[in-house]
């Protein structure tokens, strides 16, 4: 089964349906054919930061992008450190 994709506009309208019009999550879930937990997550994302909610097309929020970049850098630096440790141990053993 393929994963369904929703536009930012659809998500915002679904959130408005729940928050502004007072439709219950259960009823909105039935009407829109979207699982209730998904709707609750959309509402929560809009409450946290309405401007940055649903960036779309796999784009990350700026802070999420920065975190991902830093994780990659940490991974690379750890690998370099491990190589240097092994090289230092090798040369220390060789000089004896």
Annotation keywords:
69% helix; rod-shaped; 96 residues; 0% strand; 4 helices; mainly alpha
How would you concisely characterize the structure shown here?
The chain has 96 residues and is mainly alpha-helical.
Task: Note poorly predicted spans.
Answer: none
Per the principal axes of the C-alpha atoms, what is the gross shape?
Answer: rod-shaped
Radius of gyration: 24 Å
Write down the domain tally: 2
H/E element sequence? HHHH
Tell me the fraction of residues in β-strands, as a range: under 5%
Query: Which range best describes the helical content: under 10%, 10-25%, 25-40%, 40-55%, 55-70% or over 70%?
Result: 55-70%
Oligomer: single chain
**How many alpha or pi helices?**
4
The helix/strand class is mainly alpha
Would you give the CATH topology of the largest domain? Arc Repressor Mutant, subunit A
Q: Please report the first level of CATH classification, the CATH class of the largest domain.
A: Mainly Alpha
Q: Please state the average pLDDT score.
A: 86
CATH architecture of the largest domain: Orthogonal Bundle
What separation lies between the terminal Cα atoms? Answer: 63 Å
Largest sheet: none
How many beta-strand segments?
0
């Amino acid at each position: 089964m393929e994963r369904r994709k929703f536009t930012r506009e659809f998500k915002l309208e679904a959130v408005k349906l729940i928050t502004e019009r007072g439709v219950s999550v259960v009823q909105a879930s039935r009407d829109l054919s979207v699982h209730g937990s998904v709707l609750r997550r959309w509402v929560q994302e809009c409450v946290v930061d309405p401007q940055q909610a649903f960036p779309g097309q796999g784009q990350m929020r700026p802070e999420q992008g920065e975190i991902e970049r830093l994780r990659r850098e940490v991974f690379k630096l750890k690998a370099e450190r491990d190589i240097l440790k092994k090289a230092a141990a090798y040369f220390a053993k060789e000089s004896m």
